[in-house]
């Protein structure tokens, strides 16, 4: 039987049109990529479709194009995609404020700090001069500074300088008089009077606070961060986040921890989760920082045997706050650096978390853990939240502070083994915002200068897969968000990043050069490299 050729042509055209009509409209289609889904199997795909801010389908390019059509199709030509990075512990407002302050990081001496301040003040003669990021451990003279040179250079305007860990402040005499704190003849305050000194500086008005958040989220997007756990905010700051969230100005997803203040407890007597803001965790402190010898240790510092550091909260107050959180359904995240601080928090957590549970309470930093306490994380289902760049920043001097105890410091692999997962962050602006530095420090245990050549205590390094999970799906899991984000899977938020290289396969020397090409949140492009 002969079939009319024209009939076949018409049939083929109709079939093609009908097939095209059957395709589902998508807001965005991404094809021909090297896409890490970071799902349970750690699978890779070529393509995905986005609709209504969610991943609608994930698979091969042929499959996605057979099912979906869109006016917005990106052909990646093999370029790499990851789920949006998630910083498990950072400080959003501090980052935004810091972008307006004098950056003291990397200064090789206190004289250089004074020079930077003079240059900044000449460009912008402000009524209060604020700097941040000094670290005496990087100077030739590693002793803590005094304010003599500040008083000489700035006799009439208050100068406030935050140490890199924000647990020590150096202020000049003008700032001492303005804050009405006790003059200790050095101007150096370690974990004391910090709030009084901060309160002496005029508070930003709401428009300035909005700008602070806008600058911070812009900086985050530049480095591929689409979600953050914001580790401690006051009532006013939470209100700004809430206002920006409701207006749509808050593009980044924020898991905000609230400080245990009367205002916060009155406003948030139960967990809050709306659009891109979650307030369901309280932030507590057990001690200060190792660099300023404020970390609370079981035994005295090796390089200063007359001190064990500082426990900044009484056991009674700590237990009372834990009870409030437990009864109101909040998570708890406690800053613990020293082994005594970690032990105190673990033991008092365990009074309420009797055995395996799904409260997902956390300990932040976990820098020094006595070997007798390690098992408590697993036994009481307590999440260790760590910052790998703390290890590589501290390693050159931490041994001086700890002596033989250094073997129990920054034990990320041991902590990971408690659950099989561990969330990682940067603690920015204490450390650099860039999550690629987190990845590099976790895997290679080296600083940005590739020191030490063989890595630091490599038995506690993470694999590349573990490191990528620690900055995507595991931080999401730590805040009960793993059903909605942290991986490229159908039904989850379409938060993803496009990078200029694959950190999972490039040589070690190339990892730190990785750049973000584009950042998407909910399928919306929020950053694109020039």
Task: Set down the secondary structure blueprint.
Blueprint: H1 5-22, E1 24-25, E2 28-31, E3 34-36, E4 44-45, E5 47-51, E6 54-59, H2 61-67, E7 68-69, E8 73-75, E9 80-83, E10 85-90, H3 92-98, E11 102-103, H4 110-123, E12 129-134, H5 148-153, E13 159-163, E14 168-171, H6 173-179, E15 188-190, H7 194-199, H8 206-222, E16 225-233, H9 235-247, E17 253-258, H10 262-267, E18 272-274, E19 277-285, H11 315-328, E20 331-336, H12 339-350, E21 362-365, H13 375-379, E22 383-385, H14 388-402, H15 412-419, H16 435-444, H17 464-470, H18 473-478, E23 496-499, H19 508-511, E24 516-521, E25 524-528
Parallel strand pairs: 1-7, 2-8, 3-9, 10-16, 11-12, 12-13, 16-17, 17-19, 19-20, 20-21, 21-22
Antiparallel strand pairs: 2-5, 3-4, 5-6, 9-23, 13-14, 14-15, 18-19, 23-24, 24-25
Helix pairs in contact: 3-8, 8-9, 14-16
């Amino acid at each position: 039987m002969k079939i009319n050729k024209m009939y076949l042509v018409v049939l083929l055209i109709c079939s093609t049109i009908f097939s095209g009509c059957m395709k589902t409209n998508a807001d965005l289609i991404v094809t021909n990529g090297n896409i890490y889904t970071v799902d349970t199997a750690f699978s890779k795909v070529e393509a995905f479709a986005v609709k209504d801010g969610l991943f609608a389908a994930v698979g091969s390019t042929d499959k996605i194009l057979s099912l979906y059509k869109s006016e917005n199709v990106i052909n990646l030509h093999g370029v790499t995609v990851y789920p949006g990075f998630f910083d498990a512990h950072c400080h959003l407002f501090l980052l935004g404020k810091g972008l307006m302050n004098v950056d003291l990081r990397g200064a090789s001496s206190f004289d250089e700090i004074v020079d930077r301040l003079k240059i900044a003040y000449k460009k912008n003669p402000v009524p209060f001069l604020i700097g941040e990021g000094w670290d005496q451990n990087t100077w030739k003279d590693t002793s803590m500074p005094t304010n003599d040179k500040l008083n000489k250079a700035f006799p009439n305007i208050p100068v406030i300088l935050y140490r890199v860990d924000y647990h020590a402040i150096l202020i000049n005499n003008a700032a001492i008089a303005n804050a009405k704190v006790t003059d200790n003849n050095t101007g150096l305050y370690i974990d004391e009077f910090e709030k009084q000194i901060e309160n002496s500086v005029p508070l930003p008005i709401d428009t300035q606070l909005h700008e602070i958040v806008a600058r911070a989220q812009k900086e985050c997007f530049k480095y591929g961060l689409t979600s953050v756990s914001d580790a401690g905010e006051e009532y006013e700051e939470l209100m700004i986040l809430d206002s920006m969230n409701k207006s749509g100005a808050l593009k980044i997803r924020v898991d905000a921890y609230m400080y245990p203040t009367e205002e916060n407890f009155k406003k948030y007597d139960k967990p809050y989760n709306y659009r891109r803001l979650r307030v369901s965790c309280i932030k507590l402190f057990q001690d200060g920082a190792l660099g300023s010898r404020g970390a609370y240790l079981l035994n005295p510092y090796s390089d200063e045997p007359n001190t064990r550091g500082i426990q900044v909260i009484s056991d009674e107050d700590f237990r009372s706050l834990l009870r409030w959180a437990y009864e109101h359904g909040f998570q708890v995240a406690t800053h613990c650096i020293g082994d005594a601080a970690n032990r105190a928090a673990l033991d008092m957590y365990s009074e309420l978390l009797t055995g395996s549970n799904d409260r997902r309470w956390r300990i932040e930093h976990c820098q020094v853990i006595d070997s007798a306490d390690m098992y408590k994380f697993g036994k009481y289902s307590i999440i260790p939240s760590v910052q790998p760049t703390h290890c590589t920043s501290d390693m050159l001097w931490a041994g001086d502070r700890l002596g033989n105890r250094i073997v129990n410091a920054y034990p990320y692999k041991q902590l990971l083994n408690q659950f099989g997962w561990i969330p990682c962050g940067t603690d920015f602006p204490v450390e650099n915002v860039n999550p690629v530095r987190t990845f590099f420090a976790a895997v290679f245990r080296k600083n940005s200068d590739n020191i030490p050549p063989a890595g630091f205590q490599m038995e506690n390094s993470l694999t590349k897969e573990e490191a990528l999970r620690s900055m995507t799906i595991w931080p999401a899991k730590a805040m009960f968000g793993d059903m909605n984000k942290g991986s490229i899977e159908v039904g989850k938020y379409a938060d993803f990043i496009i990078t200029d290289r694959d950190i999972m396969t490039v040589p070690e020397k190339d990892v730190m050069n990785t750049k973000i090409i584009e950042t998407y949140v909910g399928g919306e492009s929020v950053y694109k490299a020039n």
